[in-house]
Amino acid sequence: MPLVNKTVVTSPDTFESSLQDALNKTKNVVFVSFISSIDKTTCSLWCRDCQISEPIVNEAFEKSPSEITLVECQIEREG
């Protein structure tokens, strides 16, 4: 069964509350993923490792035999 719920966190200030909301709203497994944010100039993830791993991770979640929830924490590039 595919991923049923995804929450995107873009600020460290909202991470804990977003995670708690996800945990409170489901009895399913909750995964937390830390990934680079989208680079506004290239419209893709700024981290090369994230670019490579994201489709693999997403495919694994989509093939999950049970319903899951994903809290995706997008990390801004400094500098």
TrEMBL record:
The lineage of its organism: Eukaryota, Amoebozoa, Evosea, Eumycetozoa, Dictyostelia. Belongs to the thioredoxin family. Pfam families: TXD17-like_Trx. SUPFAM superfamilies: Thioredoxin-like. It comes from the Eukaryota. Residues 14-75 form the Thioredoxin domain. InterPro entries: Thioredoxin-like_sf, TXNDC17-like, TXNDC17_dom. GO terms for molecular function: protein-disulfide reductase [NAD(P)H] activity. This is Thioredoxin domain-containing protein.
